[in-house]
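[#protein-structures] MJ: dropping Nucleoside diphosphate kinase here for a structure pass
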Amino acid sequence: MSERTLILVKPDAVRRGLTGEVIRRIEAKGFAITRLEQRHISRDIAEQHYAEHADKPFYAGLVDFITSGPLVAMIVEGEGAVAGMRQLMGATNPLEAAPGSIRGDYATSIGENLVHGSDSIDNGEREIGLFFPDA
Ligand code: CMP
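AK: finished. structure tokens for Nucleoside diphosphate kinase:
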């Protein structure tokens, strides 16, 4: 079934010049990027995006980090796109992410792990609504 997922190229990846590499891997896999925009998000949007982590000890740092510079937000679509993108990104902790995945190849820090991808179809639709309300 064709699905939509929200992908963020986080500020660490933008700073490191990895935006093109992330886009290349998504396109090479065969998913479609149907919206794409670089923007510097507000704390309000960041807090809504990460609301499910509000009670976690790393939450304040997470909001500081995701608002620390521009990110690139995308809607990615295709057959099994939610799970497929999570496979392409690798495990949340880059030290546990398989080589060949984006985090496995380019990151070491769980806080600065280069990319975000929705973890379910429902969360994907919620996150798309937050970043691309007209999509
Ligand atoms: P993301 O997929 O964007 O969703 C939640 C983020 O919280 C996750 O990626 C990590 O970057 C971050 N995160 C998860 N666990 C930790 C942790 N123990 N310490 C710092 N950040 C974390």
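MJ: nice. The pocket of adenosine-3',5'-cyclic-monophosphate is lined by residues 53, 58, 62, 92, 110-111, 113, 116 (CB under 6 Å).
AK: one more thing. The two ends are 19 Å apart (CA to CA).
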